[in-house]
Write a structure and sequence with these properties.
Layout: H1 2-10, H2 14-61, H3 64-83, H4 91-104
């Protein structure tokens, strides 16, 4: 059957044979391209979905609202630590310590010079 078709094609003019060869090669190329796309497309889609999920996760972690929220939480913890009994500062003791250091010469005070 295939042999008869090829023999019949050999008897046709060259222009007709070139058209058949072109259409045949176009068909084979289309089949190969379809197989290639069907293999690559699912893999690339899953990769795109994974990248989107990762970018959404990063965007949520670094959103301006979360940044402000974390900053406010840190400020709250700092203020809370200052006013809790664990971090009391006795200003009188600190003043006396600095005064003694100045009197003994450990700290030298120099006047500011305007330039």
């Amino acid at each position: 059957m295939l042999y008869d078709t090829l023999e019949n094609l050999r008897n046709k003019p060259e222009a007709h044979r070139k058209k058949v060869a072109f259409v045949s090669s176009l068909f084979v190329t289309a089949v190969i391209f379809s197989i290639w796309v069907s293999v690559l497309l699912p893999r690339s889609q899953s990769r795109i979905i994974a990248q989107r999920q990762e970018s959404v996760k990063v965007a949520k972690e670094n959103s301006p609202i979360d940044t402000v929220r974390r900053g406010a939480a840190q400020a709250y913890q700092s203020v809370r630590g200052i006013f809790s009994g664990s971090q009391t500062v006795n200003l009188e003791d600190q003043y006396q310590k600095i005064k003694n250091q100045v009197e003994t010469g450990q700290i030298k005070l120099t006047p500011e010079q305007n330039q």
